[in-house]
Design a protein that fits this description.
Blueprint lengths: L3 H12 L5 E4 L2 H7 L7 H9 L6 E4 L7 H6 L5 E4 L13 H5 L3 E4 L7 H10 L12 H9 L20 H7 L10 E7 L6 H11 L5 E7 L2 H8 L8 H9 L6 E4 L7 H6 L4 E4 L15 H6 L2 E3 L8 H10 L1 H43 L1
Parallel strand pairs: 1-2, 3-4, 5-6, 5-8, 6-7, 8-9
Helix pairs in contact: 6-7, 6-15
Length: 364
C-alpha cells in the first residue's frame, strides 16, 4: 500500500537533502520478497508522484539498493526507516550502502503499517474509529493478525497511531490563500487514500490557474452513517495526514459538516464546490448537502476518470485474504529472527565490553 507512514518517511528524507528521488518496486519484486501488493505498480507510481515531498520517481527500482543504483541516479545517499527490510532469503536489502557509509535513517511512523490496515479491512469491526475503545475482537486482531507463531516483530506489530499537533504542522503546507486564488472546496471520507482520490483531486486542482484546494473530512461516525459496515478503515486523524500529504491539497477541515452550509462557504470564501461522479447521499434530514452551492451556481461535478473506490480495495483484500494472512505471518517471522539475532549480537558486545573493563581493573 501507499499510506501516510510512507509519506512521513518521504517528508523526513526530503529534509535531509535538496532533491528526493523515490524508487518504487514492481509488483513482481514485491510478490517475490514480501507477498502480494495491495495497489498495482501503476497505481503506486502515480500515488508516490502525488506526495508533495517527492521530486522524481524511478519506476521498477531494484528491491536491493546497491551503490550502482545510487550512482546511476546521481544520489549522494539513500534513506530508509528505522525498521529493517529483508530479501526473500532474509538478507538486509541495504547492507551494501550501509557498509559504504551512504545510508541514512529516519523514524518509522508508529501506529501504521500495511499489516495493520489489511487486518482492519479483514476484521470488519468498527473498533479502530477514533472514539471507540478497543474491544475483544480488535484485541484479538492485534494479537493474531500480524503475528507469527513466535511472537511480535517490533517493526510491523500493530500499535496505536497517536496524532499530535506537531505532526499536523509538519504535514500542512502552512500557506494562506492569496489574492486571485480560486478557493475550491471538496468534502468526503477520503478513506484508505488511493489513486481514485489522487485522480479526483488532480482534476479539481486543474479547475483553475491559481487553485487553493480545501478538503473537508467528515468525522468517523458521520462516515459510518453514510457508508456503513466498518467504514472508515482509517480514523479521522489518519485520514487528515493522508490528505495533507497530497500535493494538490492546500488545507484540510477536520470534522467538516456533512452539508456545504452558508456558514462554511462564507467562512472560507469558497468560489467553487466540487464533487465526484459517485452518488451524493442525503443528509440526516433527507436534504441535499450541496443545496447551497447549487443555489449559488458554484457546484461542479468532476469526472476523475477513475473507477477505483475504497470498496474495491477492500474487495481485493478479502479476495486474497489467505495470501495476505500468510504474507504477514511470514514477514513477521523473518523480522523476529533478525531482531533476535541483532539483540544477541548487542548482548555479546556488552558482555565483551564488561569483560574488557574487568580485565582493565585487574591489570590496574
Amino acid at each position: 500500500m501507499v499510506h501516510y507512514g510512507h509519506s512521513n518517511q518521504l517528508r523526513q528524507a526530503h529534509a535531509m537533502g535538496d532533491y528526493l528521488i523515490v524508487g518504487v518496486h514492481t509488483d513482481e519484486e514485491i510478490a517475490k520478497h514480501k507477498g502480494p501488493p495491495v495497489f498495482t505498480q501503476e497505481e503506486r507510481y502515480k500515488m508516490v508522484r502525488a506526495i508533495k515531498w517527492v521530486d522524481e520517481i524511478v519506476e521498477g527500482a531494484p528491491y536491493v539498493t546497491t551503490l550502482e543504483t545510487l550512482d546511476k541516479y546521481n544520489c549522494d545517499f539513500c534513506v530508509h526507516g528505522d525498521d529493517i527490510t529483508l530479501t526473500v532469503d532474509g538478507k538486509d536489502t541495504y547492507a551494501e550502502v550501509k557498509n559504504s557509509g551512504r545510508y541514512r535513517e529516519c523514524k518509522r511512523t508508529q501506529g501504521v503499517s500495511t499489516t495493520d490496515l489489511v487486518g482492519r479491512m479483514l476484521l470488519m469491526t468498527k473498533t479502530h474509529h477514533s472514539n471507540i475503545d478497543k474491544n475483544l475482537d480488535y484485541q484479538q486482531h492485534t494479537d493474531n493478525f500480524g503475528k507469527g507463531p513466535k511472537g511480535h516483530s517490533p517493526w510491523t506489530g500493530v500499535s496505536q497511531f497517536l496524532q499530535t499537533s506537531q505532526k499536523i504542522i509538519q504535514f500542512a503546507s502552512g500557506k494562506e490563500p492569496q489574492p486571485g486564488d480560486t478557493i475550491i472546496y471538496v468534502a468526503g471520507a477520503f478513506d484508505l487514500f488511493h489513486i481514485g482520490h489522487v485522480d479526483f483531486l488532480e482534476r479539481v486542482y486543474k479547475q483553475s490557474d491559481k487553485p487553493y484546494v480545501i478538503v473537508g473530512l467528515h468525522f468517523d461516525q458521520e462516515v459510518n452513517r453514510y457508508k456503513g459496515k466498518n467504514y472508515p478503515i482509517m480514523n479521522v486523524h489518519e485520514r487528515t495526514l493522508s490528505v495533507l500529504a497530497c500535493r494538490y491539497v492546500s488545507e484540510v477541515v477536520i470534522g467538516a459538516p456533512y452539508a456545504a452550509t452558508t456558514d462554511l462557504l462564507d467562512h472560507f470564501k469558497v468560489d467553487l464546490v466540487c464533487h465526484g461522479k459517485t452518488e451524493v447521499i442525503l443528509d440526516k434530514d433527507n436534504s441535499d448537502p450541496y443545496a447551497e452551492p447549487k443555489r449559488r451556481g458554484i457546484f461542479r461535478v468532476i469526472d476523475s476518470g477513475n473507477e477505483l473506490t475504497t470498496d474495491t480495495i477492500v474487495e481485493r483484500i478479502i479476495k486474497n485474504r489467505l495470501l495476505f494472512e500468510a504474507r504477514n505471518q511470514k514477514k513477521e517471522a523473518k523480522e523476529i529472527a533478525v531482531f533476535q539475532a541483532l539483540k544477541k549480537r548487542e548482548e555479546e558486545k556488552m558482555k565483551e565490553q564488561q569483560r574488557g573493563l574487568v580485565n582493565e581493573e585487574q591489570e590496574n
